Amino acid sequence: MRRSVFFISDGTGITAETLGHSLLAQFGNVSFEQHTLPYVGSPEKAREAVVRINEVAAQDGIQPIIIDTIVDKEIRSIIASANACMFDVFETFVGKLETLLGEKPMNAVGKSHSVNTQTYKTRIDAVHFALDNDDGARTRHYDMADIILIGVSRSGKTPTCIYLALQFGIRAANYPLTEDDLDSESLPKALKEHRSKLFGLMIDADRLTMIRNERKANSRYASPQQVMRELRAIESIYIREGIPFLDVSEMSVEEIATRIIDQKHLKRRISSN
Amino acid sequence: MRRSVFFISDGTGITAETLGHSLLAQFGNVSFEQHTLPYVGSPEKAREAVVRINEVAAQDGIQPIIIDTIVDKEIRSIIASANACMFDVFETFVGKLETLLGEKPMNAVGKSHSVNTQTYKTRIDAVHFALDNDDGARTRHYDMADIILIGVSRSGKTPTCIYLALQFGIRAANYPLTEDDLDSESLPKALKEHRSKLFGLMIDADRLTMIRNERKANSRYASPQQVMRELRAIESIYIREGIPFLDVSEMSVEEIATRIIDQKHLKRRISSN
Q1: Burial class of residue B73, CB neighbours in 10 A (0-12, 13-18, 19+)
Q2: Which InterPro entries match (chains A, B) (predicted)?
Q3: Given 1.10.530.10, 3.40.50.300, 3.30.360.10, 3.10.620.30, which CATH number is that of A117-264?
């Protein structure tokens, strides 16, 4: 079973996409053909969108689904004229919020992804912090870190740090435990001094072998023996040193990041997005 | 006016937060005290959440708002017993989708942020591509790039590239045009060869002066004269070379990224969020 879906917004389209993906994921037997139409901010653009939706409806022989977060009423009513089934997110919720709060909505487009100087700075600083403190490159700024991820090579540290920075403004460093570190069976000095900020990533041996083989096929680095040896050594360090850790084998970057925030009670530094 | 809001999920909480921020941004006169409760995945955790919500309700003297994306019906009904006004996203939309599609929802938690091996790889590869090709560090992989951002120092290239990678799996490189490049009034050879992939960032002089001053206060680099000179030179290169560009002074990273996708007709390589 196949169905076309349009995520439509007069802003970035990110809210419509995020909500839409969550809803559609509940229907795993349906194959959704997804289109995102952002910045539909004028009646003219809305009419172009309607033409496109109607073409897809004619091709499919069945009404597409629209999930929209359009703020402007006129634009919304043009979209509503398409040959489609419309899930109108703002109309559904904003009216109810208006009644509850006793306040008029601003009906301003793109408010949640507009730029706020302080938020922007916090976020960009966090991204640069993650890049500058990636992969153990430097350890002298660890006093400014909110969290320091440790783990073996390719266990997911870098994308998690970057996601924590972009999404939440959290300053995340990461340090890969090398073979020397693992052999010495103790934490490097730079890490010992910041023990309360450490969080370990753990990963399934088969999955790590696969990931490393994609990077350096048939190398010692990617061999099952080497992977197994490193994972055993690092797990015993986590346990002996009392470092909290998480098996991330089945997790997306979003899940790793939000589980770490939850477990370490990290404070979000930005609340936008 | 102040109001407490709880974003609650049995998964990461990202969908509830993203939608919640978009909705609340429409009520700019209200100060929202935001709490996110992710991984509320058991009746016990749900009851703990209810206790916390009721405490906040008692302190505030007014019902908090709940925006939830809880999949499990039992957990949802426990949360619904709190002294709060609940905006139940899945209940609102999933039933309607079920009727429309003639399919039962899977009622499985965290589906949209669960890991899919191909998506994971595409995404992580894109993140490593962005890091390896950041700041003009290398130019020899530009044939593999989907887009190459150019601009003066601190105009927002790096965060935008990383966001394109994490959110959409797009391979984005960036190259800062240096003073030498600007003085020579022509594009470096590495860029000329990939002209169709180039996209320029432009930024307001006052804003760039402020950003650079936060980095290196009172330097020549951050002086209004230098900033103005660089911006004039780069704008004339964009125009002369026919490179599309965007004034990002008032834009969030999300907006810069999605506007570039829209203008350059870039294809999303992943559709999960």
Answers
A1: exposed
A2: Kinase-pyrophosphorylase, PSRP
A3: 3.40.50.300
